[in-house]
Request: fold
Amino acid sequence: MMKTLRQLLTLLLLFNALPILAQQNPNEYVEDKPVLMKNEATFGLNFHTSGTIGIQFRRSYNLTGYKKWIFEGDIIGMKHPKEIKTVNRYFDNAKSYVYGKQNTLNIIRLGTGIQKTLFSKAERNGVEIRFLYSGGLSLGITKPVYLNILKPTGKGGEFDVVVEKYNPEEHFVDNIYGRAPFTEGLDEINFHPGAYGKIGFNFEYAPIFEDVKSLEIGAIVDVYPKDIPIMALIDNKKFFLTFYITLMYGRKW
Reply:
């Protein structure tokens, strides 16, 4: 009886080890490789350390089985590291705003680069690991901040609320009622052309070969010729280093 149990246990262990043995000896087991897809297109949601959620589009072309030429575009919102939201506590229904913020900054990136496959899905249990680097145009777009300002009517304790462009010499925490609608100031947009560079790692895990599902992590630096005027009361800067995570979905063909 014990001999039979030992034989069954040995057969069970050998059965479980077959996939490992097959991968170790290519003469005994050869996995059919899928046809190389030359094109890839993905759309992604970008989360980064210096602003709001952004979006990304990327188009890739296979140069070899392990190397791709990529074209990409990003649209993100960028914040100054000293931004802190506040609210006028002395008035009901006051809206939050960032005291001292002079302009909002959004960035459009258009660039190209290279993506290399470091490990295939077969080598990393169904996850393809890629390294990428890219660079190109970084266009900063600033829009003046408009606020709802309290103006005394001359009657005791009564105020009118008017919309004005933020002026650090006239607007303070006691007369700011809150942020104005985002549409205010759209006709005063300014453009700040610059450049960006990116490096990252991409982890592609889609179970279906034609699909793309990936998580990308990395770092980006945006550089401009002059300081971008985001804040009025503290120093601004001309370069922005951010770390990002992007969730990407797409197709291969």
Observations:
- The longest strand covers residues 103-119.
- Helices lie at 2-24.
- The first helix runs from residue 2 to 24.
- The radius of gyration is 28 Å.
